[in-house]
Amino acid sequence: MKNGFTCSAFDLCHAGHILMLEECKKHCRKLTVGLHTDPTIDRPDKNKPIETVYQRYLRLKSNVFIDEIIPYETEEDLYVILKSGDYHIRFLGEDYITKTDFTGSELDIEIHYCKRFGYSSSGLRQKIQEAKKK
C-alpha cells in the first residue's frame, strides 16, 4: 500500500481537519503529516497561528490516523520533505484542483483531492470573535 503525505498549520484543529485526516488514511498505509509552523513566514496574506507549534503537535500526535509528524517552516522546507521522502500519494484540498503551481507540483507524486467538509479555521476564528463581542 502507499505512503501518504498531507500538510497544514492545523491551527484551531476542528472537525474538518479530523475528517480530512480520516479520508487520507483510507488511501494509504502510512500517513505523514507536515506541520507548518507559521505560514506567514513565506505568505504574509495567511493567518498567523493562534496556538503554539507544541500545542498543535500534541494534538496531532494523539490522532489515530497519523503515523508521523514532520514540522516545517518554509515552502522550501516542504519541497525538501516531499522530494526526499518516500511518498506515493499526496493529499490536497479540493481548492487545489484548478491550481497547477503549488509546492512540489512537478514531483512524481499522485495527488488525491480531499473533499471540503464545511469547516475552516478562519470560520472558527470569526465565530470566536463574534462570541467575544456578545
What do you see in this structure?
This protein has 134 residues and is α/β, with parallel strands linked by helices. The chain has a single domain, classed as Rossmann fold. The chain contains four helices and five strands; from the N terminus they run βαβαβαββα. Strands 3-2-1-4-5 form a five-stranded parallel sheet, sandwiched between helices. The relative contact order is 0.23. The model has no long low-confidence stretch (mean pLDDT 93).
Principal-axes shape call: globular
Count helical runs. Answer: 4
Residue fraction in strands: 15-25%
Broad CATH class: Alpha Beta
Mean pLDDT: 93
Poorly predicted regions are none
Largest sheet: number of strands, sense, barrel closure? 5 strands, parallel
Distance between the termini: 50 Å
Using DSSP, what is the number of strands?
Answer: 5
Number of domains: 1
Q: What is the rounded Rg?
A: 15 Å
Topology pattern, helix = H, strand = E: EHEHEHEEH
CATH superfamily: HUPs
Class derived from helix and strand content: alpha/beta
| Helix proportion | 25-40%
* Annotated CATH architecture: 3-Layer(aba) Sandwich
CATH topology: Rossmann fold
Order of strands in the sheet with most strands = 3-2-1-4-5
